[in-house]
Amino acid sequence: MSGLIRFTVSVPGELLEAAEKKLAQGEHNRSAFIRRLLETALRDAQEREDVEQWIRGYQEQPQTEEEFGWQDEIAKEYLAQERWERDAGKSGGRTSLPLGGDGPCF
Question: Counting beta carbons within 10 angstroms of the beta carbon of residue 34, is it exposed (0 to 12), middle (13 to 18) or buried (19 or more)?
Answer without folding.
Answer: middle
